[in-house]
């Protein structure tokens, strides 16, 4: 499908309809927020099928969503602001960044693509190239939030449906925050106001990291790193409830410890093994698997599930090509489980201290992580992605934009039928993807990717 088939109708800046009485003037960024300051925006979007007898015209749908966005921003008012970076007074070196909550506006784009059908997005194994054009603020880096909107919404009319793409500045919030916002936006669209899960804007700072957190640079642009261009092969793989249950059973049977390895840990171990095999590196090469996890419930006292901001950490499991391929699925899943199990309030706080002590190397870590010996699991099958009902039913699929299309990134979504099903959006170099599709261990665990 040619890119030019997507036509932009208009772009507007939407501000909150009112300002809460307790609204903050500024929101300081935490260590977790700053960790994403030079990375791309989060880009996630939902695909909806419209019934032929839909009671609304597309113009009415556009207007309805724009009004709902203005209303939900009353709760998420920092998203209408912009970043501000200031130099530390009386210091030769040092800057700090915060969100100035003065309402500058969120981008709202109306577009049409009447040559594209829902099935053109839903059915293919490989994500079509044009999907990235269904998102606003494409290729935006979070640092651009000083000038660009912190959030953009692009609503595209399709031949028989709608795609609602959202680009969300990752330095303002993580995946949990993203989907809480998107669900609240959907609630207001279908007339639920007040929203059921209002965000908590009190950011978490430890005693070791009171705001503002100073970065030892002359200017914030010193943090910019060059990211690799997106890889062309991005595929969607579906794992049914039966498949994930079998993987869990197989992994735990191999370890002899019933139920200790979760379904997702077993699936992650499988993907790590099979991608490593497809890459074909020597047995002595080191390989790493990165898993992100939510800190909210692990901290003591725990943070609210509605905490708005970044509140996540990542663990890294290291091994060699020979070890992961020689050992069984239970071994790989157990390696991942061990890393997650030791993440406690104490270890999370210690990681914050380590970050503060190495803040000068903040983004050099990000630039070296993206190589072909690593894989990264992002997203979660626990996100309420399909609950985003804007008034015309649940989504039929979830897709991400070009921000995630780097070699070795695995985006995790809940499967559309629920009940433990999982969808993985995997980005790989073309040769590696071709070999993965021929891997019997991997493909025997997948279900049809052509979902209805």
From TrEMBL:
Transmembrane segments: none annotated. Keywords: Transferase. It comes from the Eukaryota. The keyword Thylakoid does not apply. GO terms for cellular component: cytoplasm. Signal peptide: none annotated. GO terms for molecular function: acyltransferase activity, transferring groups other than amino-acyl groups. Coiled coil: none annotated. This is HXXXD-type acyl-transferase-like protein. The lineage of its organism: Eukaryota, Viridiplantae, Streptophyta, Embryophyta, Tracheophyta.
């Amino acid at each position: 499908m040619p890119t030019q088939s997507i036509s932009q109708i208009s772009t507007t800046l939407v501000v909150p309809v009112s300002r809460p009485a307790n609204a903050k003037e500024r929101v300081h960024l935490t260590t977790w927020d700053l960790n994403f300051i030079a990375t791309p925006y989060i880009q996630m979007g939902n695909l909806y099928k419209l019934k032929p007898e839909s009671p609304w015209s597309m113009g009415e749908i556009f207007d309805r969503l724009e009004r709902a966005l203005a209303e939900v921003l009353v709760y998420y008012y920092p998203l209408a602001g912009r970043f501000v970076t200031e130099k530390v007074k009386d210091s030769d070196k040092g800057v700090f960044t915060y969100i100035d909550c003065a309402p500058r506006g969120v981008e709202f784009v109306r577009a049409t693509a009447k040559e594209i059908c829902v099935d053109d997005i839903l059915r293919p194994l490989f994500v079509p190239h044009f999907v990235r054009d269904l998102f606003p603020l494409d290729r935006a880096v979070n640092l651009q939030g000083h000038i660009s909107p912190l959030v953009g919404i692009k609503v595209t009319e399709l031949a028989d449906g709608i795609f609602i793409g959202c680009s969300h500045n990752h330095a303002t919030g993580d995946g949990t925050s993203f989907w809480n916002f998107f669900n609240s936006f959907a609630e207001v669209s279908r007339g639920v106001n007040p929203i059921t899960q209002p965000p908590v804007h009190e950011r978490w700072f430890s005693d070791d990291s009171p705001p503002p957190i100073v970065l030892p640079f002359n200017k914030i642009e010193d943090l910019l790193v060059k990211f690799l261009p997106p890889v062309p092969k991005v595929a969607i793989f579906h794992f049914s409830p039966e498949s994930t249950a079998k993987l869990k059973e197989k992994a735990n049977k191999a370890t002899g410890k019933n139920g200790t390895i979760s379904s997702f840990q077993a699936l992650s171990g499988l993907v790590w093994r099979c991608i490593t095999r497809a890459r074909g590196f020597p047995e002595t090469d080191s390989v790493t698997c990165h898993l992100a996890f939510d800190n909210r419930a692990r901290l003591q006292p725990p943070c609210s599930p509605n905490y708005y901001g970044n509140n996540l950490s990542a663990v890294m499991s290291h091994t060699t090509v020979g070890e992961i391929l020689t050992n069984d699925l239970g071994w790989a899943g157990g390696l991942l489980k061990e890393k997650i199990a030791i993440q406690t309030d104490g270890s999370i706080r210690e990681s914050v201290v380590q970050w503060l002590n190495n803040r000068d190397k903040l983004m050099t870590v990000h630039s070296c992580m993206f190589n072909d010996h690593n894989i990264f699991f992002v997203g979660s099958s626990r996100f309420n992605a399909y609950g985003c009902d804007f008034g015309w039913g649940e989504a039929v699929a979830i897709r991400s934009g070009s921000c995630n299309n780097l070699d070795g990134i695995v985006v995790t979504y809940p499967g559309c039928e629920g009940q433990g099903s999982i969808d993985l959006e995997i980005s790989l170099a073309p040769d590696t993807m071709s070999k993965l599709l021929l891997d019997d261990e991997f493909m025997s665990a997948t279900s049809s990717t052509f979902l209805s």
